[in-house]
Amino acid sequence: MKETVVSGIRSTGKLHIGNYYGAVKSFIQMQHEYNCYFFIADLHSLTTHPTPADLHGNIKQVLVEYLACGIDPEVSTIYLQSDVPEIAELYLYLNMNAYKGELERSTSFKDKVRANPDNVNAGLLTYPVLMAADILIHKATKVPVGKDQEQHLEMARTFGNRFNRLYNQEYFPEPYAFTYAKGLVKVPGLDGKGKMGKSEGEGNAVYLSDTPEVIRKKVSKAVTDGGPTAPNQEKPEAIQNLFELMRIVSSADTLDHFEAQYNAMAIRYGDFKKQLAEDMILTTAPFRERINEIASDTDYLRKVARYGAEKARESASKTIKEVRELIGFRSF
Ligand code: TYM
Fold first, then answer.
1. 134 lines ligand 1 (CB under 6 A)
2. pLDDT tens-digit profile of 295-332?
3. How far apart are CA 139 and CA 303, in angstroms?
4. Residue 142 is among the residues annotated as catalytic for this protein
5. 321 is catalytic
6. Is residue 50 within 6 Å of ligand 1 at its C-beta?
7. CATH class assigned to 198-292
8. What is the pLDDT of residue 225?
9. Residues 6+ apart with CB under 8 A from 100
């Protein structure tokens, strides 16, 4: 039997190249080898209180972009999290054995509290429990995600194992983060500080749907410095990040060329950034074209979502039925 894979993306808008190289690219490659479930985490996105119109638009955008990246709805199961109420039910059961202390220690929770001290809601605190439910509902063992999700996967294993111990059954298998890259990926942003992300400020992320002009503009504004002051000098973070982006989108020859120039103190950041922008444009071009095509086909999108929800519910309802039995909800 094929191993099961689950992964999701929050429905907070457009996909950036961090999402693609960190997670989506591996999903696409996994489709033919594994039993794959890919979903849009629209319940998770409620922690930030989107308006109904924003939520609807963002869900559509993510669905379109997933498909444009190459997720094949005939091969994989692609669905909206909110179309599978069994996930919310499992979340409720798992919440009974998730403790405030461990949830408060989660790095992403602490980051969110720091960023938005006025909106520390229970959904935010239990975000990792909902994520565990997403994964455990299909008894998945492999979860293609970026480096930032590693701790959430550890928590999913904790909650699954705790359930197994409590009901004295080896019921949920242990899910692990997985990608085809060496180790989990962290794609840096253009602001010189850290990872590429939607909430890291305008200009930090390059989106798959960005036009070539926008990409050129964003990359040209990326943070650099006055240049190396000694041969073979260690690169400061902002420069290292741009080299890392080049490693991801450019050929090995191009990367070697600019590495050599940096080491010889002959690098011209203008040329370096121009090349980086052109390679980003090239790698994202096929997605951009398909995004526009698919977005205009509402009938197709509706069919994909309906078909995906049906397939996802088939698997999810089987799990929830067994879980209810194990917990002790049995018919008389
Ligand atoms: P989200 O929507 O923030 O990101 C979606 C995926 O993209 C990866 N990613 C990155 N990878 C490398 N470098 C980056 N700069 C970068 N930015 C984002 C993320 O690691 C993720 O794999 N909690 C999840 C969504 C989710 C989920 C799940 C994932 C909900 N339930 C169950 C897997 C399984 C999230 O917020 O991802």
1. yes
2. 999 999 999 999 999 999 999 999 999 999 999 998 88
3. 26
4. no
5. no
6. no
7. mainly alpha
8. 92
9. 125
- Tell me, in angstroms, the distance from the centre of ligand 1 to residue 132's CA: 13
Q: What is the pTM of this model?
A: 0.96
19 lines ligand 1 (CB under 6 A): yes
Question: What pLDDT is attached to residue 181?
Answer: 85
Domain spans of the chain, in order of start = 4-185+298-327, 198-292
Considering the candidates 25, 112, 139, 218, report the single residue annotated as catalytic: 112
First-to-final CA distance of the chain: 34
The pLDDT > 70 percentage for the chain reads 100
Residue 117 pLDDT: 97
The alpha carbon of 149 and the centre of ligand 1 are apart by a number of angstroms equal to 6
- Average the pLDDT over 197-216 and give the result: 91
pLDDT at residue number 201: 75
Fold observed for domain 4-185+298-327: Rossmann fold (3.40.50)
Gap between the Cα atoms of 35 and 100, Å rounded: 34
Distance 283 CA to ligand 1 centre (A): 20
- Any catalytic annotation for residue 198? yes
Structure token digits, residue 256: 């070697």
Chain length of the chain: 332
pLDDT at 272: 98
The token duo for 239 is 């420069």
- In short, whether 191's Cβ falls inside 6 Å of ligand 1 is no
Residue 111, both tokens: 């980051």
**The predicted structure's pLDDT at residue 14:** 93
How far, in Å, is the centroid of ligand 1 from the Cα of 261?
A: 35
